[in-house]
C-alpha cells in the first residue's frame, strides 16, 4: 500500500493479490525514478512495530472528527454498502489471519471511520483486481478500496476520492548497521532488486549520481521475486532493497532481521473508487475524509499501518 504498480500496465502488489512473485514493467519508469529520487525522504527513525490489526477504537475515535457530516447525507444512514477489494501481502488491504473472511489494513480502517461519520453499514467482497471496476460499473459493489491509483485513465470510468500519495520505502537489516537513511547513503552499498521493476531505475539513477559526486557506484543483485530480496538481506548478501511502502511494512513485520528505513514519496495518488453516477456517496466520502484529514485522523491511521505521514494529502475528488 500497494499500488506498487508496473507503471506501463496497471498492476501493483495489491493488485496482484497474494502472489509474492511481483514483477512490474519499467516502461515510463525513468520519469518515475526521477520523480521518486527527487521527492522528500524521511530519516530512519520510524518505528517498525506495525500492529497486525489497527485498534478497533481508531474508527470510533475518528468519528468524533466528523460527527456533523452525516447530517448532510441523511439518506446514507442505515444503508448497507458493499466494498470491493483485492487483498494482498501488504498493509493497504490484507486478509485477517484470525478471521479469513475479514479484510483489514489502512483502507478498511479509513472506510470504518467514514462509515462511523455517515452511519452506514458495509461488508467486504473480495474480487480480482481487474474485476473491481467492472463490478462497480455493474452495481455489484458500491466502493473500491484496493490500493488503487487514481489515474486519468481510470478516472474516465470511476470517480475517486484521493487521500494519500504513493511511496516507496527502503528495507534494511535490523538495526540498520550500515546507517542507510536516504538514497544518498547507498553509494557503494549492495542493493537487491527485482528485475523489470521501477526500483531498478531508481537504483541506476542514484548510482550515476554517486559516481558524478566522486562516490563509489551501487552494486546490485538481481532477482525475480520479493522472497529472494528478503533472503538476500537476511543472509547479509545485500544491504538494502526498495519496495512499496505497504509491502515494506508487511515484509519487515513478517521476517526477522528486517526493518523499514527511509521513505520516498511520489506524486501518484491513491483513491477510494465510487461509481460515476453515485455523486452523493462520492461527496459524502470526500467530506468525511476531509474532516478526518483536518483533525489529523487520516495521518494517524496511516502511521498505524507504517505509512509516512508526509504522504497524506488533503482529499480531492478526481473524475
Question: Topology of this structure?
Answer:
Blueprint: H1 29-38, H2 57-63, E1 80-85, E2 94-96, E3 99-104, H3 106-118, E4 121-126, H4 132-137, E5 143-144, H5 152-155, E6 158-173, E7 190-194, H6 198-212, E8 219-223, H7 226-234, E9 240-244, H8 245-254, E10 258-275, H9 279-294, H10 297-304, E11 312-318
Parallel strand pairs: 1-4, 1-5, 7-8, 7-9
Antiparallel strand pairs: 2-3, 5-10, 6-9, 6-10, 6-11
| Strand residue percentage | 15-25%
Low-confidence stretches: 1-55
**SSE succession:** HHEEEHEHEHEEHEHEHEHHE
Category from helices, strands and their pairing: alpha/beta
Count of separate DSSP helical elements = 10
| C-alpha geometry | elongated
Compute the average pLDDT. 82
Q: Tell me the radius of gyration.
A: 19 Å
Main sheet record: 9 strands, mixed
Give the helix level as a range of percent.
25-40%
Subunit arrangement of the protein: single chain
Span from first to last CA? 22 Å
Number of strands: 11
What would your notes on this structure say?
With 319 residues, the chain is an alpha/beta fold. The protein contains ten helices and eleven strands. Strands 1, 4, 5, 6, 7, 8, 9, 10 and 11 form a nine-stranded mixed beta sheet that branches. Helix 3 crosses helix 9. The protein is elongated. The N terminus is likely disordered.
Sum this structure up briefly.
By secondary structure, the chain is α/β, with parallel strands linked by helices.
Amino acid at each position: 500500500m500497494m499500488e506498487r504498480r508496473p507503471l506501463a500496465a496497471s498492476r501493483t502488489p495489491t493488485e496482484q493479490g497474494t502472489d509474492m512473485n511481483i514483477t512490474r514493467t519499467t516502461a515510463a519508469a525513468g520519469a518515475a525514478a526521477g520523480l521518486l529520487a527527487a521527492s522528500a525522504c524521511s530519516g530512519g527513525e520510524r518505528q517498525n512495530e506495525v500492529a497486525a490489526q489497527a485498534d478497533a477504537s481508531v474508527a470510533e475515535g475518528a468519528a468524533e472528527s466528523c460527527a456533523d457530516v452525516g447530517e448532510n447525507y441523511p439518506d446514507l444512514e442505515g444503508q448497507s454498502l458493499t466494498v470491493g477489494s483485492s487483498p494482498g501481502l501488504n498493509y493497504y488491504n490484507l486478509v485477517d489471519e484470525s478471521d479469513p473472511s475479514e479484510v483489514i489494513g489502512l483502507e478498511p480502517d479509513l472506510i470504518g471511520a467514514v462509515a462511523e461519520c455517515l452511519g452506514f453499514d458495509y461488508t467486504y467482497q473480495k474480487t480480482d483486481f481487474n474485476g473491481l471496476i467492472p463490478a462497480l460499473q455493474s452495481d455489484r459493489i458500491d466502493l473500491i478500496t484496493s490500493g488503487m491509483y487514481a489515474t486519468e485513465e481510470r478516472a474516465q470510468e470511476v470517480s475517486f476520492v484521493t487521500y494519500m500519495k504513493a511511496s516507496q520505502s527502503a528495507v534494511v537489516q535490523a538495526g540498520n548497521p550500515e546507517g542507510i537513511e536516504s538514497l544518498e547513503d547507498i553509494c557503494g552499498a549492495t542493493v537487491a532488486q527485482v528485475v523489470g521493476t521501477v526500483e531498478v531505475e531508481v537504483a541506476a539513477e542514484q548510482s550515476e549520481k554517486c559516481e558524478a559526486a566522486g562516490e563509489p557506484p551501487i552494486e546490485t543483485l538481481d532477482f525475480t521475486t520479493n522472497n529472494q530480496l528478503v533472503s538476500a538481506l537476511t543472509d547479509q548478501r545485500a544491504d538494502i532493497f526498495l519496495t512499496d511502502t505497504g509491502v515494506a511494512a508487511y515484509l519487515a513485520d513478517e521476517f526477522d532481521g528486517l526493518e523499514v528505513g527511509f521513505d520516498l514519496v511520489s506524486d501518484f495518488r491513491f483513491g477510494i473508487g465510487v461509481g460515476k453516477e453515485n455523486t452523493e456517496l462520492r461527496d459524502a466520502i470526500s467530506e468525511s475524509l476531509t474532516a478526518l484529514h483536518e483533525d489529523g485522523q487520516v495521518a494517524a491511521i496511516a502511521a498505524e499501518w507504517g505509512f509516512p505521514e508526509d504522504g497524506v494529502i488533503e482529499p480531492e475528488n478526481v473524475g
